[in-house]
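QA checklist item 7 of 12: single-chain prediction sanity check.
[x] sequence parsed
[x] length recorded as 399
[x] structure emitted
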Amino acid sequence: MSRKFFIITLLLSCALSSVAEKKHSYLFAWCGDIEKKSSDFLAVIDADPSSKTYGKVLRTSPTGVAGARPHHTEVEMPVGGLLMANGFEAGRTWIYDLRKPLEPRVVTSFGELNGYMHPHTFFRLKNGNVLATFQYRGGHDPAAEGGGLVEVDNRGHVVRSGSAMDPAAKDELIRPYSIELLPDVDRIVSTNTPMHEDGKSRTVQVWQLTTLKVLRTISLPPGPHGNEQYYPGEPRLLEDGKTLLVHTFSCGLYMMRGVETDKPSVEFVYAFPGDNCGVPLRVGHWWLQTVPETHSLTVLDISDPGHPREASRVTLDESQKPHWISMDPSATRIVLNSDENGPDHRLFIINFDATTGSVKLDERFRDAGSSRPGVSMDGKTWPHGFHGNAYAHGTVFSR
């Protein structure tokens, strides 16, 4: 009996240890050297509030390439544990294996695919593949042809692709930026915003999902200030499964309806302060928007998407220009970064209440011994040996 009891106890202990390990929370932050001299890298940061090392950088995994300009990762950590991370200026994407969070490693990388160049946004499909936007095809100068959508597998191999060029929109600047899927009606909505050229864009595109063909290109109408329509960013499907909100980097918010029909409609519904807004999230009937002008993360109640209203905001100090945000699997915590072009580079965690829409800065998430909230990217000695100022862009919570 004693031996049996010992075995049961041992098995139970192992099971509990396994559960505890799975529950530990990490941040995977895609980082670059501000001076573009040292290798870009992925940092693993302790994001478990119960941990004694909460906020500490635990590991880093360099790519071996400097100055690729770490940009977007997938917006949340995929179930399979492989994360795509985009070095936009280099036109290269690295695939990280993060199934063992404290042993991050690069599996492979890819660049130009089928003539499509400079990928930007990654959207994980139900089949495990990724649908990516590529800004260019055949070149990457202002006169180059617009890019398209490419479905790739977890090794970066092409499954299929489709061009975003539309003869009916030959006078518009086509530079695919981000996407949203409407699988129930066989549609995709994509946006166009150029990442490294001066031309203005103002269009969204409707595609057929099964064929990756553009069905129509729609210009956003001007807002009350006359410029809110420029640089469409993130389209997000609402809870009804058919209405979308589309934000612009010019701080406009547009409602899109009838995507499944021959005559989709788009109308302006809201303007945030300033003319340079960052990445948003949609969680339930809340729209969470980074607003550099007010140094804030602002939450809108979009229960009535035609008439959004502000519900709450959390304001950071004036050195912060909030840009990227991502939600943890419990939908109660948000990671937020400050723009790489700002004077101070930090990661913050914001607590979110999905019942009330309220947001509050997590004051405990900070460097050891620091009097300021947030984990600084500046002046650190990183685990792989780099010492200096860095910035984090795409950052996601572990599962």
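[x] summary fact logged: Residues 5-12, 14-21 have pLDDT under 50 and may be disordered.
[ ] second reviewer sign-off
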